[in-house]
Amino acid sequence: MFALWRCVIPACIFVVPSGFKADADAVGPNFSDKLVVEHAEILLPASSNDTFLEGFLVIWNGTGESTRITEIRSDVFSKIELVQTVRTRSGLRTDVQASLLVPAHAELLMRPGGVYLLIDPGSKPPRVGGQVNMEIFYADGASETIVAQVSAAGTVLEDHHHGMPPTKPL
């Protein structure tokens, strides 16, 4: 059996024992041994006064090595920053991160109020229902292009865990 541990902050990392293998005929999770971006979504701001978009990724690292996201770029956006919300004695603050860790055999689940992408849309923001190509760069020099769905503010993000079917939270 496997255990999933949920962090207190909305950005969670789920740790799975390295020896876990799912039987192809069994009902349950199917854990890949690769680094996989399973979901990417960009939320437009609720108000026209808000100038930034927020992006959320679900990344599974089934490899035996931790990795770091060092940069995310898109031809559509002026700038994409990796942001983490930090709780302090005086409240919450957001810190721009130079990189984000994706531990081995774990899932990075970006959420509002936790770890997320802060996106400067530039002069022409995308439209609801559209898609945006983004390129993710990793510390080892590898990169991959992903497609993010563009959704309206207030859209409920999928509650996704690797190998399990996506669900909407209650």
From TrEMBL:
Signal peptide: 1-22
Highest taxon of source: Bacteria
Keyword Signal carried by entry: yes
Keywords for this protein: Signal
Any Pfam family hit: PCuAC
The name this protein goes by in its record: Copper chaperone PCu(A)C
Species whose genome carries this gene: Jiella pacifica
